[in-house]
Amino acid sequence: MGANMKKQFHETAFALVCKNFFNSLYNKLNKTNPAKFYLVCAIVLGGILIFVTPPFQVPDEGAHFYRAYQISEGGFLPEHLEEGTGGTLPRSLQVVIDTSIPSNMYGNTDVKADPSLIKKALSQPLNADDRIETSFDNTALYSPIMYAPASLGIAISRAFGATPLVMLYVGRIFMLAAWVAALYFAIRILPYGKWAMAVLALSPMAIYQCASVSADAVALSMGALVVAWFVKLATQESCMSKKQWFLTLSLLLALGFVKQPYSLLGLSFAFLPSRLFISKKQKWQFIVSALVVVIGVTATWYLVSTSYYSVPAWISATREINPNKQLLFLLTHPWTFLHALANTHLSTYSDGLIMQAVGVFGSLEAPLPLWADLSYMFALLLAIGVSYGQKIMQKTQRILLFTLTALSFLAIDVLLYMSWSPYAALDVWGLQGRYYLVAMPGIVLPLIGSLEVKFRRVKSQFVIISLALIVLITSFLVILKRFWIA
């Protein structure tokens, strides 16, 4: 009898300890700041992925590395080559890309990374004087701002005698740091919807891209900053200060150098509330200056970059690509283009686009399990719901921001239809779900207050954090299995 009572006592004590532990954990999670939660998760997972992801295993990272290196040497504009567009770069860059991973690894989940190849590539010297023409058509037209963090890291590490592969890893660190800082600031300045922005920022695909030298890191940073700044100003009661005016124009200037479709987000600043200005004259001065900056910079870089554009030989060999001819077809056959949009977005292919926006790793051959995708989307829905009832933008601003974001998505489709799809194609070629992540805050934040979705804040925040952590851990395991576990 004594033994049974002792056993019951131990079981009761253990149950009380577990209950107190989970109650304490529950209370701490419910008090978690969304900006700090994002900061910790992004630094931890992003920092791990910098080294867990083998070299050049983020989509197009090799081409991004070429462009970032070119800019680090002051080559702000690309070069016309005999075969495509690119630059005259050290031969060792191409050697490292070709030899640091198994040649048959791309898209093949049965082939894993080889530590011995990476170790050997780490010692491959730069030999900066031994140069060859290097084509990287798909990234050569991106502006220097898109690679500023990575190029800075590459330049600094090169000054210390780093090898090309070490430069890649340093470039990854600088890109991740820039993205983490930008998104942390974006979450902090938002007057509402902080959890929605945090969950968006913690998209596993976003972290995966930003833990590389991909230009997506800067694009994602600019998209979040511009939308967050617009929301802040749109809900502000006092007049805009000179400092805010200057910061707005600076953001629009930088946005103009990002991919052209996202510049549409900048047009939203022309519709800020009149209460931000002391007079109609001042308002129109701001509108004109904002439009001149965003449209002028976007148009200027577009004209400059397209003067270097040429259809890559490997594409023209497989299909007819003629942007001007395709644009004329689009304008004269709008119903065919709408048919192509429907085939792309209202078919089973659209499911893949959604999965890619959440997390499909490697060369798009290592997706998250479906339950993880659904968990992430449910966490995002909860994050939208917990902001219900807070002071939000006026309906006019919400509709405007949502519409401009939708138009930026359409612009992405149009550009890919013109530059990547065969003539008169019945779907849009080359479209990936991650392309929509940049402007996604412009879709999610206007939904707050527009959708009649509301949840109890305390319980919802606990679920949001729990689901986000589960999805991020699952993402790490999927990436680890794809590249390292046979």
Structure description:
It is a single chain. The strands form two sheets. The protein has a three-stranded antiparallel beta sheet with strand order 1-2-3. A two-stranded antiparallel ribbon has the order 4-5. It is built from 21 helices and five strands. The protein is mainly alpha-helical and 486 residues long. The longest helix has 29 residues. Helix 2 runs parallel beside helix 9 and helix 10 packs across helix 17. It has one domain. Strand 1 and strand 2 form a beta hairpin. The chain starts with a helix and ends with a helix. Helices cover 64% and strands 3% of the residues.
Q: How would you concisely characterize the structure shown here?
A:
With 486 residues, the chain is mainly alpha-helical. It has helices spanning 2-30, 34-52, 61-72, 91-99, 115-122, 137-140, 148-159, 164-189, 194-201, 204-210, 216-234, 242-256, 280-306, 313-316, 323-332, 334-345, 348-359, 370-385, 395-419, 441-447, 457-484, and strands spanning 79-80, 85-90, 131-135, 360-361, 366-367.
Which properties best describe this structure?
about 5% strand; 21 helices; about 475 residues; mainly alpha; globular; three-stranded antiparallel β-sheet; single chain; two-stranded antiparallel sheet
Mean pLDDT: 89
- Quaternary assembly: single chain
Reading side by side through the largest sheet, how are the strands ordered?
A: 1-2-3
Number of strands: 5
How far from one another are the termini?
53 Å
Helix content, binned percent: 55-70%
Strand content: under 5%
- Secondary-structure element sequence? HHHEEHHEHHHHHHHHHHHHEEHHHH
The secondary structure category is: mainly alpha
The residue ranges in which pLDDT falls below 50 over 5 or more consecutive positions are none
Q: Can you tell me the number of structural domains?
A: 1
How would the global form be characterised?
Answer: globular
Please summarize the sheet with the most strands: 3 strands, antiparallel
